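Structure (tokenized):
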């Protein structure tokens, strides 16, 4: 009997074997279908850097070359006005002839916008016309009014309504403005008034704050008092 059982175990396949108690049936594994292997993609051979640089340079130069081939439009040359004088001499100053009279006159020291308009009206000249296009007669009238401007206008419009020594009203122009200013500062320094001392020490004169501005010398920061 023992031999017969051994033979039957060898002959019977796994599916035909009787199930023994306490054991689970063994399932036959299904054969997996063979999946085709993906074809290996060969990487492109890297082009040398010089070839890539040359190609990029050629592509970049194409539009520039096309633009160079196109005919350039003719540039319009600015018209030169032969009647325009670019400089007008007045009160030892070269005035800009390409600007209006009321603007060009402000180049003279001591003449502002308001004074320039008053001078143009007194000389019977349009203040909006270009200085380089006025006639010689109009330029002469302007020079005359500029030289004798003070007595022709009220005192409140002058830049020096009361002189310190004479008490007369004057309107200073040109180099007279700088000379008179220096004389006034030196006079205040000599009499040792508050404004003169402030001018002498290089500090603010007209009552401005000096806590955070107007510092002179090697002042860098503020040091706190040590407790």
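Design, position by position:
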């Amino acid at each position: 009997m023992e031999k017969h059982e051994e033979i039957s175990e060898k002959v019977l396949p796994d599916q035909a074997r009787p199930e023994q108690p306490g054991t689970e049936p063994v399932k036959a594994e299904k054969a997996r279908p063979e999946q085709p292997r993906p074809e290996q993609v060969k990487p492109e051979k890297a082009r040398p850097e010089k070839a890539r640089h040359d190609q990029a340079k050629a592509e970049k130069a194409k539009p520039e070359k096309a633009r160079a081939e196109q005919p350039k439009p003719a540039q319009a040359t600015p018209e030169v006005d032969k009647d325009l004088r670019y400089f007008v001499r007045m009160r030892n100053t070269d005035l800009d002839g390409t600007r209006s009279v009321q603007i060009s006159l402000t180049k003279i020291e001591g003449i502002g916008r308001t004074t320039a308009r008053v001078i143009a009206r007194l000389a019977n000249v349009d203040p909006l016309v270009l200085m380089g296009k006025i006639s010689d007669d109009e330029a002469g009238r302007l020079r005359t009014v500029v030289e004798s401007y003070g007595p022709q206008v009220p005192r409140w419009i002058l830049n020096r309504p009361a002189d310190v020594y004479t008490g007369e009203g004057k309107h200073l122009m040109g180099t007279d403005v700088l000379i008179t200013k220096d004389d006034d500062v030196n006079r205040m320094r000599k009499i040792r008034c508050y404004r003169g001392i402030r001018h002498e020490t290089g500090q603010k004169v007209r009552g401005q704050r000096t806590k955070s501005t107007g510092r002179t010398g090697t002042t860098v920061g503020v040091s706190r008092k040590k407790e």
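Reviewer-requested clarification: Helices lie at 2-11, 49-69, 101-104, 113-122, 136-147, 175-190, 194-201. The two ends are 116 Å apart (CA to CA).
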